[in-house]
Amino acid sequence: MRKTQLLDLIIATLQADLAMAQRAAQTAHETATHEENVAENKYDTLGLEAAYLAAGQSRRVAEIGQALNTYRHLQLRPFDADAGIQLGAWVVLGDAQGGEQQFFLGPDGAGLKVRMGDVEVLVISPRAPLGHSLLGKAEGDEVSLGSGRQARTLEILRVK
Which GO BP annotation is one of this protein's (predicted)? Predict the structure, then answer.
């Protein structure tokens, strides 16, 4: 699988998320401004609640739109072992039990999951603790995930 295919899939997923968020924002706006939702007394808050929802949905649309624009302009580069893991890296981490997890270190859209065939890739950003700890590392290095009793050590198996 190629990084360009992964980037295309992330963009397509963000486009679908944006379309869904836009529909939700439009519905919330229509609900907030509908004549039947005008408050009849101080306890009638349906219109106010719908307005808060519409504002939140509008912020979500803006956030997804910004992430989409960022990914459309992302320049993918091959992994440079001298520089270590940088933005745009596709990283495979392994745990002590032989399990593997795949991550894409992206500029935005953290938490987004995309599936390429039977492989699930989680998008993380450098602002996330794991993303930050991956920066500058290379294959064979280890990173810690979590803290205290929940801490796990993961090995960087592959970087694309």
Answer: regulation of DNA-templated transcription elongation
SS3 of the chain: helix, strand, coil, percent, to 5: 45, 20, 35
Q: Following CA atoms 119, 21, 87, 94 in sequence, which dihedral angle do they give, to the nearest 10 degrees?
A: -30
Which DSSP state fits 149? G
Residue 5 tokens read as 């295919």
CATH of 90-159, one of 3.10.50.30, 3.40.470.10, 2.60.120.1440, 2.170.130.30: 3.10.50.30
Query: Which amino acid is present at 26?
Result: Q
- pLDDT score, position 52: 81
pTM for this model (two decimals): 0.85
